[in-house]
Amino acid sequence: GNSDLSNSEGEDRSIRTDQVTMLGSTLTPCFYNYQLTVPKRGGPGSQGKLGKEVLIFANHFPLKIGAGSCANHYDVAVKTPWNRENRKSDEPMFRRAFRKLCSENPDVFPKICAYDGAKNFYTTRRLGYNGKKWTGRVSVPEFDGDNTRIVDLIFEIQLARSNIDIAGAVNAFI
Q: What are phi and psi of 91, to 5 degrees?
C-alpha cells in the first residue's frame, strides 16, 4: 500500500508501506496503513492546541554580547596527588579549587572567570602574569562520606588563544 508524506515545506510525496517496514520494524505492513506526515514548522502562535504546557529546564542561559567583546581562552592542567587520569567525578573539587585559587590570587585573575572544571577557562581580560605559563598551588578539602582530607592541587595555566571575537563567533555559528 501507499501512504502520503509531507515534508517541512508542505510538499506531499508518497512512500510504500513496505518501505516503512524496512526501517527495522518487525510489525507487518498492515499496521502501517495510516497517513505518515511530517509536521510543518511554525512559530509563536502556530503551536498545537492539544496537550498541555510543560515547563522545561535547559542547561543554557540567554547571553547578551556587545559588539567588540573579546575573550581569552586558557588551557588548564591540574596535577593531583594520585597516579591516575583525572575523572569527570573530580570536576566539583577542581571547580572549588579553581575558585579558591582565583580568590587567593586577585593580582593574577580577574573577578570573573568561566572554568569548565577540567581543561579550559575563559575570561574577558588577560591574566596578570608574565611568561609563557602560570603555576599555582591550592589546598582544598575532599569529602568522602564521613571522612575529610586535604588535597593539594597544582594548576598550570597557559594562554591558548587571545582576543576571540565572541559576537563574530556566535554570528558565524548561527
A: -55, -45
